[in-house]
Amino acid sequence: MPIHTHRSDDGQTLTIKIEGRFDFSTHQAFRDAYEHGDEKVSCFVVDLSDTTYLDSSALGMLLLLRDYAGGDRARIRIENCNSDVRRILSISNFEQLFAIR
């Protein structure tokens, strides 16, 4: 499975790691990664260190996560992007909506 999750020791941060292609084929797995979680989760980290490709459906999935996590109050970090993925996020102005590292 190309999506793995890890919860911090205190249970407040959920890390979602995506391996390979982040596209429509991962839609359900990505939603399952955060929707069936615990109410204690207040921060989300999307780890893209092993992500090789990102398309418009992935951008939509990130927006769905943002809505789920509280919209403008959401605490979401997108981390470890390669240069191609980072360029797509930048062109899409996602640094306005997410903390990207």
UniProtKB/TrEMBL annotation:
| GO MF terms, alphabetically ordered | anti-sigma factor antagonist activity
Pfam families reported for this sequence: STAS
Under the heading CDD domains, the entry gives:
STAS_anti-anti-sigma_factors (cd07043)
Which Gene3D superfamilies has this protein been placed in? STAS domain
Domain (STAS): residue spans on this chain: 3-101
InterPro entries hit by this protein: STAS_dom (IPR002645), STAS_dom_sf (IPR036513)
Q: What is the designated name of this protein? A: Anti-anti-sigma factor
